Fold DUF2029 domain-containing protein.
Amino acid sequence: MGSARAALIGPSGPALWRGVLGSALLTVSGFGAGALPVDGGPAVAVGLSGFTFGHGEVLALVLCWAGVALLVTSWLSLGPRAVSGRLPTRDAAWATALWSLPLLPAVPLFSRDAWSYLAQGAMTAAGVDPYEYGPEANPGPFTTEVSPDWRSTATPYGPLHLLLMRGVVALSGGHPAVGVLILRVLVLVALAGLVALVAAAARRAGVDTGAAVWMAGASPLAVIHLAGGLHNEIFPLVACLAAVALTLDRRYAWAGAAIGLAVAFKATAVIVAPFLLWIALDRRRRLQDSARPLPRPHRSPLVGAVLDTVVAAGAAVVVFALATLAAGTGLGWVDAISVSDRVINYLSAPTAVAHLVHAAFDTPGFEDVLAVTRQVGRVVLAVALVVVWWLYRRDTRSALRGMMLALLAFVVLNSLSWPWYHVWVAAFWFVARPGPRATTAAVGVTVFLVMGIGPNGSTSLYSPTLVGAALVASAAAVWWWWRATAAARTATDTVRTPSPGRDA
């Protein structure tokens, strides 16, 4: 990957240093305004309790948003070189690392989900079924840290999530703060895996690896919500990226095992799996068209691809079954997935439509309107996933674009959407070869999403002032981006036809 010193003294240096400062500000500000433990966290422990309320908390909020601004502008400043194929993979990888590592000692930021994860691990260790009961069924230090909104709620995550959290709880010695530190180490390791696998998939797909890593790993969404927020999205996402890279290498059993691991974490991973058939089919066609001798007995590419997919599916089922048996909790998580419907925010299109209908027609019973729009959203999403899968079957390039579009459809049409869900789309963004206008829109959406949640995990989506600020920031980012990338657009469409990735 190259040394950090080479990246820091090169053209990317000013942006990298600015991002490090932003990340450090997030860590410090989190001790006053983050998703603090009930005892107040490190600030209270060292006698600075005034940092967690009143004027101290206001100062922490100012520092936090200053840190966010530094991270966002640092990421943006690397972008024009990324989309023009001039950002070394080394620099994008070091941006991810240097902006994430200062968060190691931080409290959970922009979400309290990490406390819930640990409580679910404690439940599993105590023999309490997290798919039937909420954390309140297992009182203790971990349950105390869970948001009151979720203490009575079963978990929608898979058995591998529970096994991992059970291990973290065991290593923590019963101390939630230690559990958070261990979890962050695991997330940072997984984030390094994400960078490596995004680069590997991009290289195999023939797209620029620097741009792919810039969008997937160095993005403020990844740094703030994965490294900072500790969301478990990172684990199934890494497994899905591994499945794609392995399929591109025609290692189908291993690819299936990776999909099994991903689904055992979170059901979202199922969206990626069907597109692997089209990649396998394209690989078979390329083998047939090559000068190499064909395997005996020779099969048609479609039959061979179907058999490859059967092998992958078998491996996925075995891995998933083993994870389920190891967790000892059965398949209750399938029924528990619907608990997420309790959350209402308009990042989800069905929820946004329900708000608009309710306001425009002054209809009574918002919940009734929401139930209808969510059901319509589910139907539209199911149809969209099938249509996208079928339309994007031509070759590997087409299948990779279909994966990204299917994931995008999910985060938009699902009953619930959070900013960190969009990391899935970002991870597959450049292997899908989007055009300059689509990438410009993605930049604007990224900036808006980063401002959609407060540092303590509270939503900013229903504050007119905060939403207005997010829209202004997003519009400013789009304006700046369009001007900064004008030369790249007029010279050549380097996003649609990027140069091979560099590992300088």
